[in-house]
Specification:
Strand order of the largest sheet of chain A: 1-2-3-4-5-6
Oligomer: homotrimer
Largest interface: A-C, 41 and 39 residues
Number of domains of chain A: 2
Radius of gyration of chain A: 21 Å
Distance between the termini of chain A: 32 Å
Protein name (chains A, B, C): Amidohydrolase
CATH topology of the largest domain in chain A: TIM Barrel
Helix content of chain A: 40-55%
Organism (chains A, B, C): Actinomadura logoneensis
Keywords (chains A, B, C): Hydrolase
InterPro entries (chains A, B, C): Amidohydro-rel, Metal_Hydrolase
CATH architecture of the largest domain in chain A: Alpha-Beta Barrel
Pfam families (chains A, B, C): Amidohydro_2 (PF04909)
Shape of chain A: globular
CATH superfamily of the largest domain in chain A: Metal-dependent hydrolases
Chain lengths: ~350, ~350, ~350
């Protein structure tokens, strides 16, 4: 339910955190319970309904039109974009995880020096039906990536290090045993995506204990963003908490940078509007997107959507009440953040 | 009254800051003055009553049940835990400052290579009646400490550097002349405490001009926290402002990490609820504690307690008013943050 | 209108950001339009009135008493302090940009080793009628500047590097071709100003895409601020967003440090009071100043002043409503932040 591996013996129940309280408030009614049902009631009812019905209810209740799903992690244990789309009655789209694809290419290599071409070919092939790609550099080498495109020669050396680091002959190596964590490689993958004009998502900030937020501030991407700006490749900064104001700054000053507060949005429960307001201090409304980063628990598809709609309404109605903008502005801005920006940047309408 | 050494000729009175305004608002009545009494009235009345009566009033008025007191700084000029407990009608507990103890051990050494054992013995002895220890690495080498336990050999070398740095023969050296500021030593001290399963407090963030907040972000502790997690040693991140959201993240993802916004709580006066709300975005309610970090002025025992109770009520009542949780939840969560978490983590009930 | 170079094809109109919405709300009426006039109406009316009338209206409407103007950037394209003062009916004062002056001195040098003396002489001459100086180290080498005064020998070596870097003979070189971006030189310039007891402004945080905020956190100045504290030289941290809480901390613990949230103030539109409240958590009211950082668009002289007055009123009235301070306190604190602090620190009354 949180980014913790689990509750510890000292810290009490994770239901006693804002996200847990929000699950009791907003998810319990979807399972026919009263709002604020106790954790015990909640878990019992969830088990009684079974995961298939639980998934169906939360996905259907989220009110989504389209779903962009990162398929690069824990794929065998999760529903596919098509399955999620079916449950949500929404058009599914795929986001290809760069490092997963690159690790799979590296594991199949005859010779390290073929990696750059093999990866470029694989990316074309693999993204034929995808709407974008994702980098998880934040979980590996961190976001302080090179500002220029790494030359193929450097990339090959990095791949040699990667294969040596795995301690054996490249043939027959399973992709999951290779773990890219090298600024040169992360950078190379991003530039390959830019060559295809694919929107590039970056995990930024909030994540689990592996994330190492000391290397997860989006400001560390400044050099790379400067390098990418002339290409016009859309860059999507995902999550960003607690660096979301920094992300808002980047979304303002770089024409191709976008941001969201996904994951944090449901992670902070009833504080979602605070985060959204902070992101929108500098970020233009045309640069902010909705995202749930829902993963694992179906609840989060529903909860993130509910909290986002409430937060956005609070931000925009608050502005109307203060006289900062008009009701007509608020409607228009809501449409941009909730749907139009994503449709435009990911070119979703061309994909239906 | 603040973390400044004193007012400067250019900056005006420190009473004209949020903490000063809060002293006039909440402390003046304890001295029989009207709320918002002028600084002049306040200081005159304080002098008239005398420090003993002032101490008595503020400590008694704080409404404390237990007091955990760091005894490692400026000890001769301050009241002892027992004296503070007597004035507050609260059970006193001691927190042993690691660096102070280590400096005292180092000053008495025959040979540097005996330091590891001497310190381990001294820590057992010195903490026999203590509830925890404290590291002030943030004031010395900074919080970027090694993730693994430093081998004794490295520790000995660091002690040799420490003794050489003091420029003389170790014999007869007074402890106050030795100043530990070495990541290896700070790390060693923490691991020794972990071996005894003692809760380890870290000064984090807000402090005086010596603190150097560029090295005081709690995220810098990520590696060490990963190393300590399997030991189950409770780690208490103290203060944290302006990095309290980062601390909240760490308190969520590491099962043994706890956090407070002490010192900042009274430091920001009527903004205390804002800080507490921000800390509690990610930090579970089972991971957040009360602390005053009161030091020097008796006012702060009272002021921190008043501002904390008001802030916590505002956070929790705000949630009830919004329908985020129930009144019964609010009461339960209040009890956790105000008392139960501290009782559990420091095992206070076993110490009475 | 923002710190972006311009709108991108993907991001929509910059009018759809908080600053753009604030322009429509607060600037439209100054041009005889209804509040919230559409961007099209606004731009048409602005063109119709012409820039001279637009400048006049916004400057006159700002309600300024004094204007401190940095003359070191894009000077030929901008109004002079005297012209701005005339339009605003305010006393103009000059702020001399250190790097611009130093680049001009370096471009005229016979020999690099004469730079330290030449610069010291030029600074005396150039600041005879100025109220302070400004460093843009944040845009060049970043704010991690040396804590001690660099010796002249090191300064000369840095100037040699600067001249060599320009790839040619120093004679006849045009100043705009030299670009100081060296911690030693930035530091030297600041210390020269300190010798003259001139208030030193630092650009901090928020700026355009060239700013590189990874090197723009004011905490990076900690070492230099420690070094400058004994000199009593006032140091003004400008802008600071999103690091304004860090700036507030520095303004509290260093007697000679001041801070504002200029640029961000109008940059975030109706969120200005949030920023001001955050800055004023730790910063004493005697340490916070008003600034617009208006540049380019005359709107910002007006908008920053309107938003600042509203924000300050909201902060101070909010405190009165909560019982945190009295109405008399609020009036007094408002006078400090809005005028008296600037008058005192820049010694404006001695300059009229």
């Amino acid at each position: 339910m949180t980014e913790a591996d689990g509750p510890g013996p000292l810290g009490g129940s994770l239901f006693d955190s804002r996200v847990g309280l929000a699950v009791r408030r907003w998810c319990a009614p979807v399972l026919d319970l009263a709002p604020h049902a106790s954790p015990e009631e909640y878990l019992a009812r969830r088990a009684e309904l079974g995961f298939a019905e639980v998934n169906r209810r939360f996905l259907a209740g989220a009110g989504l039109d389209s779903l962009c799903v990162d398929t690069g992690f824990d794929f065998d244990a999760l529903l596919t974009p098509r399955e999620l789309g079916g449950l949500a009655d929404a058009t599914p789209h795929e986001i290809v995880r760069l490092e997963t694809l690159a690790e799979s290419v590296a594991a199949e290599l005859d010779r390290p020096d073929t990696f750059p071409d093999r990866f470029r070919e694989a990316l074309v092939e693999r993204t034929r039906h995808a709407v974008g790609v994702k980098s998880i550099a934040a979980y590996r080498a961190g976001l302080d990536l090179p500002g220029e495109r790494p030359p193929d020669g450097e990339v090959v050396k990095a791949v040699e290090r990667l294969l040596r680091g795995s301690g054996g002959d490249p043939q027959g190596r399973r992709p999951e045993h290779l773990r890219i964590a090298d600024p040169v490689l992360h950078g190379f993958l991003v530039w390959c995506a830019a060559d295809l004009r694919l929107p590039v998502q970056f995990h930024v900030g909030y994540g689990d204990a592996e994330a190492d937020l000391t290397r997860g501030d989006p400001l560390l991407l400044t050099g790379l963003l400067r390098g990418l700006a002339p290409t016009g490749t859309p860059v999507m900064l995902l999550h960003n908490y607690p660096f979301h104001r920094n992300a808002g700054y980047l979304a303002q000053v770089f024409p191709n940078v976008f941001a969201d507060v996904g994951l944090a949005l449901h992670g902070v429960g009833d504080r979602a509007s605070v985060l959204l307001n902070e992101l929108l201090e500098l970020a233009p409304f045309g640069k902010v997107l909705y995202s749930s980063d829902a993963y694992g628990l179906a609840e989060f598809f529903h909860l993130a959507a509910v909290l986002f709609r409430r937060a956005l309404a609070r931000v925009l109605d608050g502005g109307v009440a203060q006289g900062s903008w008009t009701g007509a502005d608020a409607s228009r801005l809501a449409g941009m953040v909730a749907a139009d920006n994503a449709r435009r940047v990911y070119a979703l309408d061309q994909r239906r």
